[in-house]
Amino acid sequence: MIIYKEGKKLENHLNSLGFENKIGFVPTMGAIHKGHISLIEKAKSENKIVVSSIFVNPTQFNDQKDFINYPKTIENDILLLTKAGCDVLFLPTVETMYPLGIEILEHFELGYLDTILEGKHRPGHFQGVCNIVFRLLSIIKPQKLYLGKKDYQQCLVIKEMISLKNLQVSTIICETVREIDGLAMSSRNLRLSKDARIKSSNLYKMLQFCKDSLCHGEIECQLSFPKEQLKLNDFSFDYFEIVNANSLKPITYWDGKEPIMIIVAVFLDGIRLIDNLVF
Fold first, then answer.
1. What angle do CA 101, 147, 153 make, to 5 degrees?
2. Is 36 a catalytic site residue?
């Protein structure tokens, strides 16, 4: 695996390979886990060359403590990506990605996606995501971009940004990879205490409970039990909602036919966890 820290040198290298229409890209913020590796393997099976990036993007954190405490395991990350068959790793600095400073950002008209769920509870988050992903895509120029379904709203936001910029890249959304107990793999899981990690398995249990028990009719009353169970296990909520699976727009009544998703953002042990499950 070749490692580049400068965008221009990476561009020159990729251009020299001649793999037109055959570059797959997996952006990450590091703390590589099996979810990331599954994206690398998927990209490896569909492209001539696979590029990944590790960059903890300061413009998508509206909580500076979260940014400062984000796990950084670069040596192990490089080892795991190499073993997975990643061809090129991009390790840019903040100065490389934001030469004019992090205050100079382009604004993307994301519509309602920027105002609901994650957009509502993390103001400015998706603007930061769009700015960094657009800059990465502009350097790497892949034909396929691989993203995990755990961050489903972010996937839709990135697809909207790609459409706004008329970029010629296909977005491949891959299934969430989970621990044995069901917890969605996330870099933030490393920050859970031992006790909280045990309790965290209740999140997936309650998502499954909703999927198995939900029937047509009013929604909110059917969420009372799973939310109460999570509260008993020390969870608190940003949101715990049933939404349209395609648009993410909230629904209050289910006719039993509309494709729906339960989507959640919770706190446990001070760590924010997100997940979703399609019905």
1. 80
2. yes
